[in-house]
């Protein structure tokens, strides 16, 4: 969803990289970057995020639908792309991508009790218990978000990915920093679950670990730290879950 106002937030950095709001017609290119980072994960594969023509098409449509739903709540862009502009030819290539779901208006208390469309798994076939299996694997993620975000203004960083040829050159940091700056402007918290590869980027951008999310897939447990970047001025006593354990 392109937001003309968001383009004024473009940040230029060395090596001809810049940040822009992603457009719907960017999604075909972005899908390739997403698959290069997450396509190896069994749960992503089980959800149909696979590198086939049919898988790519379905994946694009799911993300675009999530963008459209998000656009009903805010004019802040959801998809953020990092673009390399060739200094000789002027050709632009999407080398990185992040997906920020920003909820700057006070949500209903139950807002985060339902899964974001991209992790609901409702499209997974029911045959053989596949949907139930996927949703069970994702439940710890959904429960942790509910615990920390219930009723709060916040932003959820769903995906950060970089083309393999462009990793460790600042693209991921730029994508994350864009959202952190926006959250600071709005005075809201930013939340994510980190992969092992991404943790150092998030820490550098101000995120701190609040707990570990453990997801089980066919007996193999993956651990993904839940991390929060609190807005400036947040009191220590307020840096607690929205829903406290009884």
TrEMBL record:
GO molecular function: acyltransferase activity, transferring groups other than amino-acyl groups
PANTHER family: GNAT FAMILY ACETYLTRANSFERASE, N-ACETYLTRANSFERASE DOMAIN-CONTAINING PROTEIN
Matches recorded under InterPro entries: Acyl_CoA_acyltransferase (IPR016181), GNAT_dom (IPR000182), Trichothecene_AcTrans (IPR052523)
Domain (N-acetyltransferase): residue spans on this chain: 83-232
Lineage: Eukaryota, Fungi, Dikarya, Ascomycota, Pezizomycotina
Annotated protein name in UniProt: N-acetyltransferase domain-containing protein
Pfam families membership: Acetyltransf_1
């Amino acid at each position: 969803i392109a937001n003309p106002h968001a383009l004024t937030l473009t940040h230029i950095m060395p090596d001809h990289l810049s940040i822009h709001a992603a457009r719907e017609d960017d999604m075909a290119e972005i899908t390739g970057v997403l698959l290069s980072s997450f396509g190896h994960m069994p749960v992503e594969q089980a959800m149909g995020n696979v590198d086939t023509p049919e898988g790519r098409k379905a994946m694009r449509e799911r993300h675009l639908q999530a963008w459209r739903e998000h656009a009903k709540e805010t004019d802040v862009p959801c998809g953020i792309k990092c673009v390399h502009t060739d200094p000789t030819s002027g050709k632009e290539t999407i080398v990185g991508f992040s997906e920020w779901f920003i909820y700057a208006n006070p949500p209903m208390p139950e807002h985060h009790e339902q899964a974001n469309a991209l992790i609901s798994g409702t499209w997974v076939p029911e045959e053989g218990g596949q949907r139930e299996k996927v949703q069970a694997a994702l439940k710890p993620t959904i429960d942790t978000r509910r615990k920390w975000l219930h009723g709060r203004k916040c932003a959820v960083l769903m995906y950060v990915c970089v083309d393999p040829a462009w990793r460790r050159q600042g693209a991921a940091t730029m994508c994350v920093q864009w959202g952190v700056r926006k959250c600071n402007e709005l005075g809201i918290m930013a939340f994510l679950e980190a992969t092992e590869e991404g943790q150092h980027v998030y820490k550098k951008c101000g995120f701190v670990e609040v707990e570990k999310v453990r997801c089980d897939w066919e007996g193999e447990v993956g651990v993904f730290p839940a991390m929060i970047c609190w807005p400036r001025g947040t009191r220590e006593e307020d840096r607690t879950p929205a829903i406290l354990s009884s």
